Amino acid sequence: MAAASVAICLATYNPPLPEFERQVESLRTQTHDDWVCIINDDASETDFAAYLDGLALRDQRFQVARNAHNRGFYYNFERCLQRVPEDVRFVALADQDDYWYADKLESLLAAFDKETLLAYSDMRIVDGDGRTLSATYWRHRNNNCTELDELLVANTVTGAASMFRRELLARVLPFPARIGDAFHDHWIACVALSMGKLAYIDRPLYDYYQHGDSVIGHCDFEKRDFPARLKRLASALPKLARPRVLKQRFLHWRNASLAVHQYECLRIESICRSILDRCPIGDAGKRRSLGLYGRGLVSMLRLLVLHVRFALRGATTDDAELRLAAGYLMHTLDPLVLRFHRPRRGASSN
Prior knowledge:
By secondary structure, the protein is of the alpha/beta class. The chain is built from twelve helices and nine strands.
């Protein structure tokens, strides 16, 4: 088979067959037809495995591989990317149950210039019957394709909306160890923006089907303006005046903040450390952003500064930078908390 210009990486695991066939048909009708689709199956049931074998026989553009054991979507996408042929120029990611518009590949390819490493688009959010839930992904969020600080704490690049240059694979593979809710698209987007430019197409290029079986759902971030924050704080203060309630709230905040440090702070530290180790970063500001994490109280203070900057710019991050700051604060101070808080014998430490 002659070399294709685009490799579509499609990770699968037991999809409902009608939804998968809908996705496959939308790939076949692409106006840019110079592609190969690598399907990496994560140890699905026998019936679906047999269907994939038949698909590869009917259309040789589909190349099927499968994992011996279930690895989960993160490592399944990693394995799929490891199978990308050397001679393709671009890589597109695909989910197993979406519907691509006919010009999706063509439009993403057209968005690249010499500095762009990754391009992505908007999407239409639909329910399981194809009814529109939202005409855009950005109903209650702001898009971001330029600010690395913001992308590190709140990803805006959805894998199925994106395409990237094949040479990026040398930097993104292997994936960092999965910590907490690590996602392949966040990792790839952070590498791309650290090294170059992202391009965004401001219109939907596919339907994202939102249903209970989705691994990654469409999420809206709550917009918190200053008056709303003051009102929330004022309603909480009377309760905090009671010592027992204050102690319970503090212990709850302590446990939550330590969990944030373990699963969120360490995840972003791993992303930043891996990028600095693997990638040539020519922009001094981006190097500073990548060096922000893993520095205890220094990281906490920098994250608070970021929060003010994000608020002034109207960025929507779901206050992730505040959670991270609290994680660093409590991780640093917790030895003192344990020293002064000694539970009574037989009492729960929670």
